């Protein structure tokens, strides 16, 4: 699971714009929140409800 998370978090870092970056997961568990690089990790449910 850690390898998958690291792989998925690596891709948005290379997009050079000012839009927020999201990593939407079915069940984020301990990974929910904002990373040190500004990528927002959230559950699909919270993303669709816009509770982030």
What strand line-up does the widest sheet have? 1-3-2
Task: Specify the helix fraction band.
Answer: 25-40%
The number of helices is 2
Radius of gyration: 11 Å
Arithmetic mean of pLDDT: 81
User: Shape, please?
Assistant: globular
Q: Largest sheet, described in full?
A: 3 strands, mixed
Tell me the domain tally.
Answer: 1
Task: Give the CA-CA distance, first to last residue.
Answer: 23 Å
Helix and strand content put the structural class at alpha+beta
β content, as a range? 15-25%
Q: State the low-pLDDT regions, or none.
A: none
**Series of H and E elements:** HEEEH
What can you see in these coordinates?
- With 52 residues, the chain is of the alpha+beta class.
- The chain has one domain.
- The protein is built from two helices and three strands.
- The N and C termini lie far apart (23 Å).
Descriptive key words:
52 residues, alpha+beta, three-stranded mixed β-sheet, 2 helices, 35% helix, globular
Question: In short, what is this structure?
Answer:
With 52 residues, the protein is α+β, with helices and mostly antiparallel strands. It has two helices and three strands. The chain has one domain.
